[in-house]
Design brief:
Layout lengths: L2 E4 L5 E3 L3 H9 L9 E6 L3 E6 L4 E5 L5 E5 L4 H12 L3 H5 L4 E2 L4
Antiparallel strand pairs: 1-2, 1-3, 3-4, 4-5, 5-6, 6-7
Helix pairs in contact: 1-2
Amino acid sequence: MSYSALDQNGDTVWSPSVKQRRSLLGSLSVDDTEACVSLTHNGQWCISAFHSGLVCLENVVTGEGLWHMPSIPVTKILDLWQLLTEGNVQELRQLPWQDGDGI
């Protein structure tokens, strides 16, 4: 299984460690509310995160989704990203996602 992250500048980080993922989330600034960072598993399932705690889940290949959850704390986003790195998409899909991008 492979996974990668995109920082808010669009640069790719291949197989980021937990420390790198935490740093990516920490780079989000209240001054740029539209900036996001994301983690993608096998080039398909993606979880994007915003400074506000908004997270979005979608399959960028099939177009399945877009679902969101608002106001998620950083520690929970890290948990969601961990599930995604492990390929636990079914477990992720069982969470209380809402339709749309939440914006």
